[in-house]
Amino acid sequence: MEFKRLKYFIAVAEELNFGRAAVRLGMAQPPLSRQIAALEDQLGVKLFDRSRNQIRLTDAGAAFLQRARDILRDLDSAYREARLIGQGGAGQLRIAFVGSATHGPLPGLIQAYRSKYKNVDLSLSSMNNADLERALIRRDIDIAVARPYLSGSEELRSAELFREPLILAIPDGSPFADAARSLDLRDLSEEPFVLYPRRPRPSFADFILRVCAENEVTPKDQIFAQDYQTAISLVSVGVGVAMVPESVSRSPRSGVVYKPYTGHNPGTSLTAHARLDNRKPQVMNFFSLLQSFARSGTD
Q1: Considering only 79-93, 136-150, 270-284, which range has the smallest mean pLDDT?
Q2: Residue 31, preceding bond cis, omega within 30 degrees?
Q3: Which residues form the domain of 262?
Q4: Residue 284: exposed, middle, or buried by beta-carbon count in 10 A (0-12, 13-18, 19+)?
Q5: Cβ(21)–Cβ(15) under 8 Å?
Q6: Is the CB of residue 97 less than 8 Å from the CB of residue 161?
Q7: What is the pLDDT of residues 13-65, one digit of tens each?
Q8: Are 145 and 271 in contact (CB under 8 A)?
Q9: What residues contact 297, with CB distance under 8 A and at least 6 apart?
């Protein structure tokens, strides 16, 4: 059945006059009459009683009118939904990120995305870099926010969100916590270093060890934690010191003091990745918003 015939039928049923319905539809009356007759032939029932000067709906016509309205309403809703999803304004976007990203600009970016695309269902989860890469390969997620980036990034769409210096996280009971000046990393060479993640390797832990080596420091004791949250908890109870992104200092933690250090500081970054073949409009909209977010320096 052609949907236009439903529109013709509804117009005639609401006007109960072929002439007025034809004017409403912007067409001549004879073709409208032929379309209604063809619809009745198709259904095998009379929809209108034409026995009097003024036509009226038959019982079958009255029942069909409600169904026709429902069908066109559902069709219009389907059009709007498909258009919205096709433009990235609805549907689903699955984002996973390293734990330390929650202290930088990522929460603000997520909030901005939610505000702009209110009908998109956002799925958020925390993973380490290795799990992020596996999840992207398996298509379990759409976007991975890694620190500093994923090793297979040449095969991925990538955009740097944020770059920041490294700082030291020190137990508040340490004598170094009261130092008024920036610390020389070599001063902490006898301190236990809390590193993360424990596995898989190489990882952010190996990056920190290279930074230490470039500052002529070899941590005497190395204590590995599986993630950032565990590492900072170990610092808070006096187990050792840790090198962390500067943004984490904006979320104070009881038992932890944050200090800058002098010497080689390559900094660290957050980078968003997606598969090159994932061109979902939700993904493309996220990257577009990320780039304007990064340019504005919003944090």
Answers
A1: 79-93
A2: no
A3: 166-266
A4: middle
A5: yes
A6: no
A7: 999 989 899 999 999 999 999 999 999 999 999 999 987 677 899 999 999 99
A8: yes
A9: none
Residue-wise pLDDT tens digits, 114-142: 999 998 999 999 988 889 999 999 999 99
* Domain count along the chain: 3
| Nearest CA-CA partner of 47 in 75, 82, 90, 18 | 18
The first and second tokens of residue 88, run together, are 């990235």
Choose among 176, 298, 159: nearest CA to 235.
176
Is 230 found in the same domain as 187?
A: yes
Residue 298 pLDDT exceeds 60? no
Domain termination site, one of 69, 86, 103: 86
Residue type, 131: D
Token look-up 């066109």 returns 72
Which residue, chain included where needed, has tokens 């565990």? 230
Q: Could you say which of 59, 86, 113 is where a domain stops? A: 86
pLDDT cut 70: percent of the chain above it: 97
Q: In sequence order, what E strands does 155-241 have?
A: 156-164, 166-171, 183-184, 193-195, 222-224
Is the Cβ–Cβ distance between 153 and 247 less than 8 Å? no
For residue 5, give the nearest of 51, 74, 72 by alpha carbon: 72
Tokens in use for 123? 């799925």
